[in-house]
Design goal:
By secondary structure, this protein is α/β, with parallel strands linked by helices. The protein is built from six helices and eight strands. The chain has helices at 24-38, 64-72, 112-115, 121-139, 158-163, 170-180, and strands at 13-18, 41-47, 55-56, 61-63, 80-85, 89-90, 99-102, 107-111. Strand 7 (99-102) and strand 8 (107-111) form a beta hairpin.
Length: 192
């Protein structure tokens, strides 16, 4: 289920993909957050263009699964990929998604279009960090959490994104260690 690099080795390698119009401050903030939270190393960074064929004209949004599948074609061996996109995206059954992880592809995407709504730059950076950590949690085997402040809590609105923290609750922290042998910095663990 997990790349060999996680078996008995705590080094988490991330391939950071992003659209060209994503600000360098966002890319840098995510690189730092991944390093601080997981001691992760971003070993490849690359810009990409999301094909317009993934755009649903009726909805005015991109189909998130197609975007993640496309991003996975850029995946290097023994890494996880995270795409940062300024697109508005959805999955069937939901009006929109802030992000989507497909664990068997070791790839996730975070969609900034709605996260940017009414946000200062600092608020946007905070929201994007939470959603990147959330989607990476899914890639590492975590499911949604019922603890409201846990970063793994499901967010169906900006208010819910803003309420949760960028930290994993004790339960998710323990599950993550058991499932993937990944250690999270104490700073990223909720003290209950």
């Amino acid at each position: 289920m997990f790349p060999a690099l996680l078996k008995g080795n705590t080094l988490l390698k991330i391939q950071l993909l992003y659209e060209q119009d994503i600000g360098s401050d966002i890319v840098n903030a995510i690189r730092i957050a991944l390093r601080e939270a997981f001691n992760a190393q971003t070993i490849y960074e690359e810009t990409l263009v999301i094909p317009d064929t993934f755009y649903d004209n009726r909805r005015g949004q991109y189909l998130a699964e197609l975007v993640v599948e496309y991003a996975s074609t850029f995946l290097k061996e023994d890494v996880y990929a995270i795409l940062l996109s300024n697109k508005d995206a959805y999955v069937m059954g939901l009006n929109f998604v802030f992000g989507l992880a497909i664990p068997w592809l070791r790839t996730a995407a975070v969609f900034l279009a709605r996260l940017a709504t009414g946000a200062t730059r600092a608020t946007l950076l905070n929201r994007v960090e939470k959603e990147v950590l959330h989607e990476l949690g899914h890639l590492l085997g975590l499911e949604h959490c019922k603890t409201p402040k846990c970063v793994m809590n499901f967010s169906n609105s900006l208010r819910e994104v803003d309420i949760k923290t960028n930290r994993f609750c004790e339960k998710c922290y323990t599950k993550l260690q058991q499932k993937s042998n990944i250690r999270i910095s104490e700073r990223y663990v909720l003290k209950e």
